[in-house]
Design a protein that fits this description.
The structure holds two protein chains of two kinds. Chain A is α/β, with parallel strands linked by helices. Chain A has helices at 24-42, 58-69, and strands at 5-10, 13-18, 46-50, 77-81, 98-99, 119-121, 130-133, 137-140, 148-151, 155-161, 164-167, 177-182, 186-189, 192-195, 208-213, 216-221. Chain B has one domain (8-265): Rossmann fold. Chain B contains twelve helices and eight strands. Classes of the chains: A alpha/beta, B alpha/beta. The structure holds adenosine-5'-triphosphate and magnesium ion.
Chain lengths: 224, 269
Amino acid sequence: MSAVIKTKIEEQGVILSFNPDYCWEEITSALAEHLQEGAQFYQGSKLYFDLAFKDWRAEELQNLINLIESNILPETDFYFMNQSSGVERDNKATPKEQPFSPRSAQENKYTKTAGNDTKLIQRTLRSGQSIEHMANLVLLGDVNPGAEIKAGGDIIVFGKLMGLVHAGATGDKGAAITALQLAPTQIRIASVISRSPDEDKSKELRPERAYIKNNRIVVEEVNL
Amino acid sequence: MDQREQGKAIVITSGKGGVGKTTTTANLGTALALLGKKICLIDADIGLRNLDVVMGLENRIVYDLIDVVEEQCRLEQALIKDKRNENLVLLPAAQTRDKDAVSEEQMKELILKLKERMDYILVDSPAGIEQGFRNAIAGADKAIIVTTPEVSAVRDADRIIGMVEAEGVNDPDLIINRIRQDMVDRGDMMNIEDMIEILAIDILGVVPEDEGIVVSTNKGEPIVLSNNHKAGEAFNNIARRLEGEDVPLMDLNNSDSILAKFKKFVGLS
Ligand SMILES: Nc1ncnc2c1ncn2[C@@H]1O[C@H](COP(=O)(O)OP(=O)(O)OP(=O)(O)O)[C@@H](O)[C@H]1O
Ligand SMILES: [Mg+2]
């Protein structure tokens, strides 16, 4: 059985979409629960609700807005989308999105809050598997080639990071990626992308950290 | 109920095509039958069947797997007896149907029935990650992942291991097929340690590249039946390991360094 609500982290914010196989009651109760649980994570970011899966009556929309507003924290902006293609990466998309929130939209503001927003995962990600988390992510295991790991905040991999990694995925350029062996096929922090050198890397375990400096991703050794 | 212990269903799968699943199924099945075990081979590659050809049994097919699940015939009628070994039967795939003609539930039910009368059920999986693969792993107690020493095959094997584990088939074992020790020594082929390091599963065996396989495939006679073939020896060893026997990995380059390395990784010793 697939989830009622799916989340996707994009540079502009988080896209929430609903599984149309569920009835409206199931969707609203799952949404309320999801927003309550995620209230801390979502604070300060933008939520995009994908409404393309059905036609909406005005009354239904109003109910949805009430539901969302009563379950999010201040400084969380939300928008409705009418297309299922996701948030477009450039500004062209903006006119289609109608901000329902009067609050000022702070650009790419992601508040790093230590503590319960960090997720710990203990397993190896194999090719084709992926993990996404709104805030910081710590993985005890390897990220194999062909796997993907993505977080709104920092990423720490206590193992070999060989797949694709994306930290600060909601736009936080201050996010960092640390791994015992940092050998990803591609590394992304916020909107900056860098790929691994084409020649073979050495295979020794040597902890490294990647972060953005002067708009470029740099990697430095970590002395534990 | 019968006092007999239930058989074990093993799916042989890979992700990438053409790496040797069918060859492995035919040879392991034959080798296990030679050890006196009762074996049923299932060709789950619906629409692209060839296990029957590799076994040399093509001309005996009357009914197939789809006929059984659609109850066009009884299970016994569709099981083809091997021409060389009475312990071995084959349930062929349908050639003219597609993979959606059978469901995961039906496969489970079928395998449960076979487990009552067989020691091993070996399921030859189609390549890919679609419905055919899902059908093949439905009902399996164990998975054997076949790969060749190529980056793409290992990547697909990794993907498949993840999917197999997600389906609740835990602790899959690995067979590395078509190793050429001379190329590995020259650094032109992925070595075994590199593969085990990524895949992180136990290794069940290493099968060398062997021209004899091509000959045996064309003759419809599994290579474990002929002597003096390294590949045949390798498959016989794998069968004995499945039976719990302690067989060291074959030494492919006549020095014992490789063997020592294996032990370091997987405690097969
Ligand atoms: N160890 C080996 N040495 C030489 N040739 C081999 C070896 N193993 C397999 N082959 C050859 O490779 C080809 C593919 O093998 P096989 O049909 O067993 O693969 P498969 O994984 O079942 O393929 P498919 O994905 O199409 O079902 C065959 O022609 C076979 O003879
Ligand atoms: Mg095959």
